[in-house]
Amino acid sequence: MKYSLAKLVAQTLGGHRGWTRAWRDPEPKPHYDVVIIGGGGHGLATAFYLARVHGVRNVAVLEKGYIGGGNAGRNTTIVRSNYLLEGNEPFYEFSLKLWEGLERELNFNVMMSQRGVINLFHSDAQRDAFVRRGNAMLMHGADAVLLDREQLRAMVPGIDFDNARFPVRGALMQPRGGTARHDAVVWGYARGADARGVDIIQNCEVTGIRVEDGAVTGVDTGRGFIGAGKVGMAVAGHSSRVAAMAGLRLPVESHLLQAFVTEGLKPLVDRVVTFGAGHFYISQSDKGGLVLGGDLDGYNSYAQRGNLPMVEHVMECGMAMMPMLGRLRILRHWGGVMDMSMDGSPIIDKTPVRNLFLNTGWCYGGFKATPASGWCFAHTIARGEPHALNAAYRLDRFLSGRVIDERGGGPRPNVH
Amino acid sequence: MRIHCPCCGARPVDEFTYLGDATPQRPAADAGLSAWHDYVYQRDNPRGPHHEYWQHAGGCRAWLVVHRDTATHEILEVTAAREWRARQA
Amino acid sequence: MSGQRFRTAEGGLVDRGRTLSFRFDDVEYTGHPGDTLASALIASGVHLVGRSFKYHRPRGIFTAGPEEPNALVELRGGARREPNTRATVVELYDGLEASSQNRWPSLHFDLMAINGVLSPFLPAGFYYKTFMWPSRFWEKVYEPAIRRAAGLGRASGLPDPDHYQRETLHCDVLVVGAGPAGLVAALAAARGGARVVLAEQDHRVGGGLLRDSRRIGELDGPGWADDMARRYLGCEAATLLTRTTVFGYYDHNTLAAVERVGDHLPEPPAHAPRQRLWRIHAHRVILATGAIERPLVFGDNDRPGIMLASAARAYATRYAARPGNVAVVFTNNDSVYHGLADLAAAGVTVRAVVDSRREPNPAAATRAEAVGARLLRGAVIRRVHGRLRVAGVTVDAGGVQARIDCDLVCVSGGWNPDVALHSQTGVRPVWDAAIAAFVPGRPRQAECSVGAAAGTFDTAAALGAANAAGAEAARACGFEATGDAPAWDPGTVSPYSIEPLWRVNGHGKALVDLQNDVADSDIDLSAREGYRSVEHLKRYTTLGMATDQGKLSNVNGLGILATALEAPVEAVGTTTFRPPVAPVAMGLLAGNARGRHFQPTRYTPMHDWHARHGAVFVEAGQWLRPRYYPRAGEDMHAASVRETLAVRNGVGLCDVSTLGKIDVQGADAGEFLDRLYCNGFKSLPVGKARYGLMLREDGMVLDDGTTSRLGDDHYFVTTTTGEAAAVMAHVEYYQQAVWPDLDVQAVSVTEQWAGIAIAGPDSRRVLQKLVNGLDLSNEAFPFLAVAEFEFGAVPARLFRISFSGELAYELNVPAGYGESAWEALMEAGAEFGITPYGTEALGVMRIEKGHVAGPEINGQTTAADLGLGRMMSTKKDFVGRVLAGREALVDGARPALVGVRCVKPGERLYAGAHLVADGAAVAAANDLGHVTSVTYSPMLDNWIALALVSGGRERLGQRLRAVNPLQGHEVEVDVVSPHFFDPDNERLHA
Predict the structure, then answer these.
(1) Fewer CB near the last or first residue (10 Å), C or N of chain A?
(2) Phi then psi for A167, rounded to 5 degrees?
(3) pLDDT > 80? residue C493
(4) Residue C251 CB: number of other CB atoms within 10 A?
(5) How many CB atoms lie within 10 A of CB A6?
């Protein structure tokens, strides 16, 4: 069913009784050409592009709970391509370009809103690092603007310029960055994949990966064995556990990241703004809630619930950056499990097991990558080889030393 | 979260900093690249009990090995890293 | 001014002796102490107080508690404006100002109500299916319109003028909620001497008793509660926190609470915070948080004048404010019947009780009859009349429909135990069919629930359980605990029964989530389109995402979804409970860590001297360091050039106290440092210093600094300012966790020593005057010599090391003597024109010398990248050795350190510029590296820079372009050695 204004009017006149399911609820078939483990944004996008770009339609996406129930439904919805390094920037810029056409591609309004992403800097050293990064972005064909204090003051009201412990000196801005509606991305890809024949199977937890003679043959699930020509893992937060089913050990730790939303407010913060003197970022959703986030709690966790010190720390940063936030109230805060890789960059690659493919290590940057991750993972699965865009995201890069460490934090996942 | 530091008693988690999995043993100098790669980069990353390094950085500065459940955050045991190493040996 | 026409003549917990005036939407009203804003409005006959989120439907006051979805106001004005404040919990104070929100131009005539007319076109999720064409219209047209229409109240946009306090509290037992069960539990726990904290969100104890007119023995409900509180506070270690909401339950029995210290006042008292955050560490927690009444879902169930039955009762009794003149009560359970007499006593004519059950409890009829109300069994409300205020209802009793005029409809769909805190611990609540509600599951932390929060609606039973729970908690903490629960006889009690009624078909929108305008039809649509998981339902329809977080709506929504899916409610499950239980101010959570107090400020021992002498400071992490010392008319450039030339030509003084300093001692100290540094230290003679480089285990450079040997078993390590803490932790890690067998101790002495660099050709002459005869001649005290001596009468250390490239020394004296040592040097150097210099001049000189610092040691560079590859010992093992040998880390094409210089003197360079070959396009494919550190060099009279360039020194002599499209700049540069000035270090050794 194609969505359109005319359809909405027609359905209204029919009491909305004619809307059909956005995606089917099929029984799993005994065998698929490709099984994707994980019905999050990345898994569903992979299935979509397998069908749309590569014509691979005999595909199942297996989700242990409900689709979009992991980080796709817990993130703070920021979309940007403001990366520094050669391995990253072309990939994220490609992703941003896919975002820009996603509504038409999916016939689903994902509310991609290019409000601009602004990174504040507070010192000469930070400015120099941002200049380096902004130049890298421009040289890769992305967009970037350096803002001085006065430009920033005019663009973002409420920043503390006068009484700050670490005075704001300016900002790097990516005007094309912004936000999108996270759940809509999941549903849009699910609907698009379903329409092209992909089976989306919810409440179907993978309990084992069968490997024979070094090649994958299928997966055991709560709903029985499902044979597969190829298997792709896209299970952010749980990659280590699923990979272990195939005997693989990953350069990944699972960490806890909290996020926050305030009560609904009339428009107040028009851009996405990140603080440079601590981990904090803020934007405002279309519904009116301010959406905030900060740093990892810092310890390995699968709990999806964080602790008070980081809650306080995030709010300290918020108040330091925008003291007008003081009387606004946090409505809800929650936690998600991040696959933190050892260099802060993702992995989209083959594995030592034939026909088993891996998509992991998104740290807390997976949402914006969703379209390109799906596109590249689909390519890697369909062709058996990575695309140039994900060629740097190799699993063996830690052995060769070709790490992609944007922050220079080294092999400590909780500092990336 | 609260961690019972063997020196200082139960203290709030914000006094501690986290390093990570305490299980991998630093390889011998001549162990070869593969062993060093595994030590520095590869993790079991279990969902459940996990031996992990914390430092009481805002307290006595002791490095600790905390046996903690990553699914529930329940702490099963805390040992000074020095003693834990000795116990491993 | 409107009078309090609906104020009852007597009774209630308001103080009629004092009158408070307040304004709502610019109209003046009055009330009394004890009122909330909501009760005072009701006493004045005001029911229309807000507009809903999506359709802008007129809304009244629906509850009498923090779960209020409708009566949200902007409270106070100016910088203190608080949007979305629940009128039902705002304690009235004299001069209070509030206004309604989310309406234009006025509450009574809201143009956005057009959305209500259009609502058939705007079902759940409609926005996902439209607004897609043309694509550019989203940011320009659709989204701005949606954003203006969405949202609730307006933020002030001004810095919060109030302050907040954060406190930590330790106790044996925390009891949350001071209703009857909480009071009994707290008393039982406290009797034996346990430290007990009882937290109550209201400003007085009693909970549900405050709205209950029944007597308990000699006392009325509030009197009984006060008596219990007195007995509790008579215990040795009992604390009562009122106006305190426990909002978060975190790991290991850490809970967070907000105490509203000043919210009931026009502004906080002098020197008091507006609110206080309590971080509570409790051995045991008893949750006595009560239950929240559920609405019923029927057409136009949101009209002003429709409210929860318990709220109507609270207004009638506690607040002495008649919520209407003529009431109809609509219920599916027995809880409403006790309150009928209270309504009648307040002057409300209860016309009818519409009970959806065919056979309510037999006592129901008696109670209805007692107030002259008709009891309609098996009946429902099919239609609501009136728009800005309910005017009547059409009741369907067994197929017979009749209109009943009324201005108040009291609804009760049953009661939900408040399991929010319990569920935050990660436990899913379980469905209890007997009360058609979720009750606590098996606790994971040391907590239990009692009273209505546990689903025990029979108070006598609840008190018995609460008494046992309190005693058990005290015993678990090692205290004696004996004693029975207090007697409880409030007269006849009917057992509670309920028959779920999830929705009533009828006329108009039947709302499930009042604030977000989610109707039962939206849930049907969600199920029809496949959004069937309870989480999909929430996310697709926004059910439960309003400011009450589903406290009123979720269970009804689940019931409707379960019906649509033909599944039991327990199979549908709940969404996840998250903190906070009720919204909390961001300022509270931040405490006083804002503005200049966001983080501590570290001052060096000589800070005051710098300040007195006009230094301009710069942040270096948490430290403040002098950046330059401007003289009249000088800008930073002029000052730093002058300071640089003063050092190069004479002598200068720089505060280097911020460098990290680590004292390392023990028989294995040398061996330990040999393992940590890539170069060797075991061979360092006593009395000598050496530059050292530490790697991370992955082979990248961690930090650099000078390490000196003060004795056979004694080294003194310095680190950079920025990495001091990380290096200390690194040292301690290897000492304690990796090589515990080594005999070595390490301690940070950063703050124990003041550090002063004395640099320049005249530095020896200045120092010689002050070192008590220590021979500083080049022969006796050559480059890298170290001595411990007495500076005046103070033990001091002198290091002949240099960052500037000049003849230079670093003097360390105990921190308390830093300023006097500095002054002594200034005095001794006066004849040489000694000049204090800041970090700018320091930076100029280190770039002139090609020394690496933060921009080069950025975590992405190896020793070889920095031109320091030869420091990596081949004779010993060290941290990072093996992985530094990985193929990509020894690749000759890696960017490596060089110097670059503008081809045309006078042209500028910028750090962050990228380097491309002459003639190559400004594109990533041609990117050769980037400029890391830039300065104007007074000695070379040119802009110079350090850069990391692919191929490194192989490019010496090449001409490249430094391109900076971000700043619209480009300049030709020559690749040169990074050692711009005095490359043979003659001055250093002079």
Answers:
(1) N
(2) -55, 140
(3) no
(4) 22
(5) 10
Contact present, C547 and C583 (Cβ < 8 Å): yes
- Mean pLDDT confidence for C607-623: 97
pLDDT higher than threshold 50 for residue C820: yes
Can you tell me whether residue C552 is helix, strand or coil? coil
What residue type is C953 in one-letter code?
R
Residues C928, C917 contacting (CB under 8 angstroms): yes
The answer on pLDDT for A139 being more than 60 is: yes
Question: Which residue carries 């058939």 as its tokens?
Answer: C120
Report how many domains make up chain C: 7
**CB-based burial, C282-308: b 16+ in 10 Å, e otherwise:** bbbbbbbbbbbbbbbbbbbbbbbbbbb
In sequence order, what DSSP letters do the residues of A144-190 get, joined into one string? -EEEEHHHHHHHSTT---SS-SS---EEEEETT-EE--HHHHHHHHH
8 Å CB contact of B12 and C279: yes
Q: Look at the block and give the residue holding tokens 């308990």.
A: C216
The share of chain C scoring above pLDDT 90, in percent, equals 92
Tokens at A358, concatenated: 């891996």
The CA distance from C545 to the nearest CA of chain A, in Å, is 9
pLDDT (mean) for C256-271: 96
DSSP state of C268: P
B41:A240 CB<8 A: no
Give the structural domain span for C702: 659-749+867-883
DSSP state of C420: H
Is pLDDT at A162 greater than 80 in this prediction? yes
Residue type at A148?
D
**CA angle at residue C432 from C429 to C434, to 5 degrees?**
160
pLDDT score of C494 more than 80: no
What confidence score (pLDDT) does residue C827 get?
A: 98
Q: What is the CATH number of the domain that holds C911?
A: 2.40.30.110
Task: Choose one of C411, C434, C450: the last residue of a domain.
Answer: C411
Q: For chain A, what are the domain ranges? A: 26-78+182-250+343-415, 113-178+253-341
Q: Answer whether residue C135 shows pLDDT above 80.
A: no
In the DSSP assignment, the letter for residue C860 is: S
Of C168, C732, C886, the CB nearest to B61: C732
pLDDT for residue C2: 55
Q: Is the pLDDT of residue B88 over 90?
A: no
Cβ A253–B21 below 8 Å, yes or no?
Answer: yes
Tokens of C131: 């607004």
ipTM of the complex: 0.99
In this predicted structure, the answer to whether residue C1 has a pLDDT above a threshold of 70 is: no
Which B residues in the span 13-72 are in contact with A, Cβ-Cβ below 8 Å? 13-14, 17-21, 33-34, 37-38, 40-47, 50, 52, 54, 68, 70-72
Q: For domain B2-88, which CATH number applies: 3.20.20.70, 3.30.2270.10, 3.90.550.10, 2.60.40.10?
A: 3.30.2270.10
Contacting chains of C (3 CB pairs or more, <8 Å) are: A, B
Last residue of a domain, one of C143, C158, C173: C158
pLDDT at C482 over 90: no
DSSP state of C510: B
The amino acid at C445: Q
Element (DSSP H or E) covering residue C654: strand C652-655
Predicted TM-score (pTM) of the model is 0.97
What CA–CA distance (Å, rounded) separates A331 from A319? 17
CB-based contact (8 Å) between C922 and chain A? Answer: yes
Q: Domain coordinates of chain B in residue numbers?
A: 2-88
CATH of domain A113-178+253-341: 3.30.9.10
Stated length of chain C: 990
Interface contact A298-B42, CB threshold 8 A = no
Q: Which fold has domain A26-78+182-250+343-415?
A: FAD/NAD(P)-binding domain (3.50.50)
| Closest C-alpha to C974, from C912, C910, C915, C922 | C915
Query: Tokens 């024979």 — which residue?
Result: A212
